[in-house]
Write the structure tokens for this entry.
Amino acid sequence: MLIYWYFIFALSSQSVFGAPKVISLSPAITEIIFKLGLGDAIVGTVEHSDFPTKAKEIPRVGEYNKPNIEKILNSKPDIVFIPKEGPDQITYKLKDLGINYQVFEIKNLEQIALTAKEISKTLNKKEAGEKFYSNWNKKLKALKNAKNRSQKTLSLIVVQSEPLIVAASNTFLDEMLTLCGGKNIFSHLKGYPRVQKEAYLNKNFESVLLVEHFASVKQKEQSIKSWQMLSKKVSVINPDIATRPGPRLLLGVEFMCAAMKEYQLK
């Protein structure tokens, strides 16, 4: 995990009376902080930081990809937590303004636990991070050691139906599918590519995992019906527990594995 520090003054001088005041520029980082039991330290976050419910009460400092510098300044944080894939130039602006920040790169399941560990150190709650780290790795190890069928189930992971965008390699969804005994038909690609119909029709996939935000129940039902014309097994997974790199991602793994197991037993 890549972590970059910039300190104008020592955080210890800011945290005599408790954890430093934090602004989180990521819904996932916000979730991690709450899971550590340190949600009260957050004085600002971005839109879509909606879990747990208490996170909805935190003042907003802008969109995920466009935080408002003025609102950040007015919140008077001791430190700002930033996702590595977040908005360009934000670190330069914070540095120029003399605001402390810490950048986290979370690219796989193991790095979620490492991020929690680092956050807990910064917030002077090292024990909370150690506990999170230990519990997370125990659960992850158990998932990796679980017996899956030897013949991998060929699967298509859809994150958006119109236009069609899929999850390929180097994504959490691909890592989760592998843990569950599946094989991604687009593992030869990377990230979340937009693909044409012809790209999957000749793949002979056995299952479809729909991991997208639906605008309505009707849209969801229509999408399921459409994909059922191409696959015997179509499963819907809440994207909040399958794509947001936070504490609920292992729940997403368990849900996906249950869906894959249900298919493999047929």
